[in-house]
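Entry 14. Ran structure prediction on the chain below.
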Amino acid sequence: MIKILFFIIFFLINPLHAKIINPDKQCNTSAVQIDFDFPGAGNLTCEIINSKYIKFFINPETDDSINPSPWFAIRKSKHSEDIKLEFDYKNYQHRYDPKISNDKKIWKKINQTNILKDENGKIIIINFSPSNEKEYISSQELITEDWYNDWFNYLGGLEKVKSELIGLSVLKKPITMFFVEENTNNPYILILGRQHPPEVTGAIAIKSFVNELISKNDLSESFLDNYNIIFVPLMNPDGVENGYWRYNENKKDLNRDWGIFSQPETKSVNNKLINFKDDKKIEVFIDFHSTYKNIFYISDISESHKLQNFLKNWLNNSKPDLLKIDYDYKIVNSMSPNNGISKNYIFNKYNIPSVTYEVSDVEDRDKIKKSSSILSQKLMQSLLELK
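Output, structure tokens:
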């Protein structure tokens, strides 16, 4: 019944004789002007059905996308009439709750009552009331180069944080590694982020996590007296800027390239790690991602070792404080050799606790910031207890 109702509405508002195919990165009618020629927009094409109805086709960067994250972003002008925008995922299914913003800084979810979805989840239609301002509509928040530049400028203003250009992406964008080294004889914590472009909740989490590690308080100061940090927050700048679903510009999944190092982005990090002096030791590895739920995929040290079961203990010790903010999560033991995933590669090569820190696509953004700050504090406390 729902499916029948959907298509009755679909054909009522979708007169077939009015279709005008537009191959450019814009769709302009007398009622509204829409474009998708900006960083993070993704691979879209559009059809003008009529002046108040535009259809978009959402295309992956390659047809063999695994763990598909159907992504789009558009920019619409102000308009004085109701308009309808259709998004067709073709062989894939709608995943994210679409967001809207007029400044790319403050985002809110589009009211679900304005979204009509077909039974198979491959088509959605969004109704927009008249608007007197330009607005961005995106699968998730647009966290692109400008967002990172703002953060990197903040980090650059901190005396304790140093940075180094360690390589270039396929499209010659910088791969930047940051260092906090009070004493180079201390062990290192290695942190990575944004191997997969659409995973913006992981980007929100890594920023709060790292900022807590380097904050000006007694815990952080004590931690940085005993541990160093190296982190690469933006592993896949090409994929982020182009709105890719999964891959880099070479259509390769960076989180399946560890140990292979066929891509300049992963190779640049590995080259830096293997060039560490013998007296420098990585002790914990954290890789930030996003998925459907909050999950920590852990590879823990199980034999007799000062870091035995470190990850499990750290996460369990964090649980009381995380429960206070209603942050629910799972811990999954996950160890596998030779599959190209960064966590598994680092664990097998360096024999250190390694975790993929997955943040739910739909988690409340303030809760992401609070939980990652808590987890950062607990990490510092747990490591200091081992000294």
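The longest strand covers residues 282-291. Will compare against last week's run tomorrow.
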